[in-house]
Specification:
This protein is mainly alpha-helical and 488 residues long. It contains 20 helices and 13 strands. It has 3 domains: 2-254, HUPs (Rossmann fold); 341-384, no CATH class; 396-482, Arc Repressor Mutant, subunit A (Orthogonal Bundle), CATH 1.10.10. One of its GO terms (molecular function) is ATP binding.
């Protein structure tokens, strides 16, 4: 049907006036309706976020509906992952989730109501008959449309299997004034008599969604533009029932940074993977998803409170946004630097296997550790030296710094540091600099092997911060493990 869509862009000034950031629409109800057949993917999370923000901005309700009618593919594990991901992002639904499978009886009642008012019919066409007609259409190179001889019949055979089909309008056109896509028009001849109720009595997606949205009081449907075609079919049901028409906003999908459809190779993971595997903070992903396809001037760092105040659908772009994992990590680095040190310590301590008694040292080190980290994994990796056991494991790059000459320099530094009566950033700095000056060394000639000996790596917080964090005894012991014995 996409080929038959005629889109007309509304005047942007009219779109802005219809939904300005300062206006409030009374009685707004939005919904997020995932299918629990897998993890909460990044596109679904953004859809949920936009619905949550729209409802919060207008003082309305944001509801969660689990569309679990696919009994074969729906799993409790997926349901739990969706609920957990939404909770982690802080965009839970208002009230308990609505499970679609619990209302199949209601869906069936509506299908039979449509038969009663002449807007739907029993169709006894078999799968074999439909397949033959489809093959004929293909052979004749024409679109296949359902043209059932049962459309206007009521002499239904007893005991035979049937489906219930909508009597789709055949003349005229259906128009949607979409808040994102603008005016979109489809000729009604393009909409066939699709199935509402299967032969086993279960509802199709089209019917269940319309009934659920109506019964939940949904006023605004914000979802991916891959559902735009569905909207025209769903409107056929809504019009046949005489129900209020919701306001639609179909948001362009997310692509990879190369412009191709988003996939795992672009970093399209489940929300739980961004948290558990990539070490992303929820406020970072919240901010990043918000900026995927929506903007507020040149603002990049947007708080939750600002997002609620500023969010409006008319600033959602009409082109697909591009997901860039590197930009997400850079944004995450900002939020890590802004985050509370104790919170970061609690988040990174499991990866380090720390006891409660070891947390104070990690909290103390956090201001230095978080200055260069882009994710929680880097934080944990950077903090590892604090809790490493002697003898330290030295990585390949650090080992290259510990030449025989460098080990001799370590002995000089060890001697000077051991003589300090007061152990602080300034005193250790002065002692090491004095050794360098007395022996005609550049500071790096001492600092680099010191870092390698103290941390086992070539990167770390400032070397004098490392000395203070480790303390005098541990620092001297680690240096001694790597230095040459001094000669008289």
């Amino acid at each position: 049907m996409l080929g038959a869509l005629n889109q007309f862009n509304r005047d942007p000034r009219q779109r802005k006036a219809s939904l300005s950031a300062s206006s409030k629409i009374p009685g707004v109800v939005t919904r997020f309706a995932p299918s629990p057949t897998g993890y909460l993917h990044i596109g679904g999370a953004r859809t949920a976020l936009f619905n949550w923000l729209f409802a919060r901005h207008h003082g309305g309700k944001y509801l969660l509906r689990i569309e679990d009618t696919d009994k074969v593919r729906s799993t409790q594990e997926a349901i739990d992952a969706i609920l957990d991901g939404l909770s982690w992002l802080g965009i839970d639904g208002d009230g308990e989730p609505y499970f679609q499978s619990q209302f199949e009886k209601r869906h069936a009642e509506v299908a039979h109501e449509l038969i009663a008012n002449g807007a739907a019919y029993r169709c006894y066409l078999t799968q074999e008959e439909l397949a033959a007609r489809r093959e004929k259409a293909q052979a004749e190179r024409r679109p296949f449309r359902i043209d059932s001889e049962w459309r206007d019949r009521t002499d239904w055979p007893e005991g035979e299997s049937y489906v219930i089909r909508i009597k789709a309008p055949r003349d005229g056109e259906t128009v949607i004034d979409d808040l994102v896509q603008g005016r979109v028009t489809v000729a009604n001849a393009e909409i066939d008599d699709f199935v509402l109720l299967r032969s086993d009595g279960t509802p199709t997606y089209m019917l269940a969604v319309v009934v659920d949205d109506h019964d939940m009081g949904v006023t605004h449907i914000i979802r991916g533009d891959d559902h735009l075609n569905n909207a025209f079919r769903q409107l056929a049901i809504i019009h046949a029932l005489g129900w209020p028409v919701p306001v639609y906003a179909h948001v362009p999908l997310i692509h990879g940074n190369d412009g191709a459809k988003l996939s795992k190779r672009h970093g399209a993971l489940g929300v739980d993977a961004y948290r558990d595997e990539l070490g992303i903070l929820p406020e970072s992903l919240f901010n990043y998803l918000l900026r995927l396809g929506w903007g507020h001037g040149d603002d990049e760092i947007i708080s939750r409170e600002q997002a609620i105040e500023w969010f409006d659908v008319n600033h959602v772009g009409k082109s697909p946004s591009r997901f860039d994992l590197k930009k997400l990590e850079n944004l995450n680095g900002h939020y890590i630097r802004e985050a509370d040190d104790a919170r970061l310590a609690m988040l990174t301590s499991p990866a380090l296997g720390l006891s409660y008694e070891e947390l104070p040292l990690l909290i103390k080190a956090m201001p230095e550790l978080k200055a260069r980290a882009h994710n929680l994994n880097e934080l944990a990796d950077g903090a590892g030296f604090l809790f490493a056991q002697r003898p330290l494991e030295i990585d390949e790059k650090a080992a290259a710094l510990l030449s025989e000459e460098a080990k001799g320099h370590l002995a000089l530094a060890h001697k000077a540091l051991m003589e300090l009566s007061h152990w602080s950033h300034d005193s250790t700095d002065a002692a090491v600099r004095k050794v360098a000056e007395e022996h005609g060394l550049k500071l790096g000639k001492l600092a680099q092997p010191l870092r390698a000996a103290l941390t086992g790596k070539t990167t770390s917080p400032g070397i004098f911060d490392v000395l203070v964090l480790l303390g005098k005894n541990e620092s001297l012991a680690r240096i001694a493990d790597q230095m040459l014995e001094p000669t008289e």
